[in-house]
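#struct-pred
JK: can someone run the complex with protoporphyrin IX containing FE? inputs below
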Amino acid sequence: EIKKGQPTNAKTEEMQPNREVSDGEFMSANQGVRINNDQDSLKAGERGASLLEDFLLREKITHFDHERIPERVVHARGSGAHGIFKVYKSLAHLTKADFLQDAELETPVFVRFSTVAGSRGSTDLARDVRGFAVKFYTRQGNFDLVGNNMPIFFIQDALKFPDLVHAVKPEPDNEIPQAASAHDTFWDFISLMPESAHMIMWLMSDRAIPRSYRMMEGFGVHTFRFINERGESNFVKFHWKPLLGVHSVAWDEAQNISGKDPDFHRRDLWDAIESGAFPEWELGIQVVPEADEHRFAFDLLDPTKIIPEELVPVQRVGKLTLNRNPDNFFAETEQAAFHVGHVVPGIDFTNDPLLQGRLFSYTDTQLIRLGGPNFQEIPINRPLAQVHNNQRDGYMRQMINQGKSSYNPNSLGGGYPAQAPAAEGGFTSYPERIDGRKIRARSKSFFDHFSQARLFYHSQSEPERNHMIDAFSFELGKVKTIEVRKRMIAILSQIDQSLAAAVAYALSLSIPKDTGQPLNHSIPADADPNEYQPIQA
Ligand code: HEM
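RT: done, structure tokens with the ligand placed:
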């Protein structure tokens, strides 16, 4: 059944065999037998005990008892929608990705927006990062752009991710507070982690309390690679630019809304799509040729850095439109499994150590969250591209593989798929040259933690800066441990003295004397940014 005014696409039509409509049908049990009475259990007499024989009671209660699955370990609270993506003109000179070749081609997408720290039932208006995850159902398989509404991240290495999340989640003894940031463990961690300085500036800014999912930017954060037909690689950063503009609410408004309508963003997205006001974003890319990898004052592999748009402009190359609400929240939004490792030929990874860790994490967590190795067969997750391989069996297997064999190499045949040459769309990893020692260390090019934090602060208008001062003062004012507050003032003083002074004043603290040994390990820029010539899309 087509929702009024909401277009279908190849993916939403492909899911049709899985849709169920009860209206006008007889009620039946899971084995198909029709149910005559769904309200009275089978009893030994009108006032007697229920009988174990009652298979209808047992089935209904058993299914109910098993209705819940674990929420996502992060990004538990979210909302999703279907839509389409179209590139404006071929990007063939940059990437061989099929969905970026043809302006006529419409690629179905499913998008899930989320907060990060709160649980599934938490308020939409928390001060937090927002997830912006897009699944493209391309003809070459699913490509997931699993991004956030902030262009950078807290940490430079995935090994720290469990620590970050343990610090930001409610404290373990009393499960307080729900709020993302306002507590000792979070600020303790941040105050000991100077590399989070840039991200914390974004988190204390208005960006952390969006007006609507429809009015947020999105970012792939990491530097990725585009690979073209000739096998040439260019670095690429992905952006989403909302056509409604970027808008936030003020902190007091956020508090008010959280109290009156904790589903504010979810409702806003749903209602907009129901009413036909389909939200749109343009896909933006920043492209850097391989040869320019080391021309910046920061490292392209460092996920705590942006490439300033003054150096490499964002070029708008396509449009995403969300035009259809899910039929069922659990089946679609909750069971959607995004993974930064879902790529197609023409898109590849870099050695960003945060990205590298994410490449492991998503499938691993989905194996437990979605109950085993076959979650890719769930309708919302299965690709439009055909799937043929030698993986077999496991809990809840839906596919009925035919043939006698499931191994490779194989001379007997019978249900055995061939490996695809690159010309037939077989994925080949970019043959980046790697030569190094096996070592647990970080490059010095990752050591400048404050320049871009300062750049961000200075890019804010005066009212926006005042909001940030208020946010720091409020959040740190909740921290009970005075040493943590002091360490944060020390970090802020590395970013901007006036910011540090204003927050210190609000907290009745003083700014630490300059020890002459800044926390900053800044390296000099080896290129004049003004001379930098970006590549054209
Ligand atoms: C979930 C983004 C870093 C592990 C998510 C989601 C987004 C996201 C948008 C929600 C996906 C959904 O809607 O279902 C990001 C970004 C990161 C980042 C932009 C940094 C740039 C990491 C790291 C790890 C990680 C470093 C682990 C090493 C997870 C896990 C989930 C998740 C386990 C839950 C997935 C699920 O249960 O389906 N992330 N994340 N993330 N992320 Fe990340």
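RT: quick notes.
Residues 72-75, 78, 112, 114, 131, 133, 146-148, 153, 158, 161, 221, 303, 336-338, 354, 357-358, 361-362, 365-366, 369 surround protoporphyrin IX containing FE (CB under 6 Å).
The chain has 13 helices and ten strands.
JK: thanks, will look after standup
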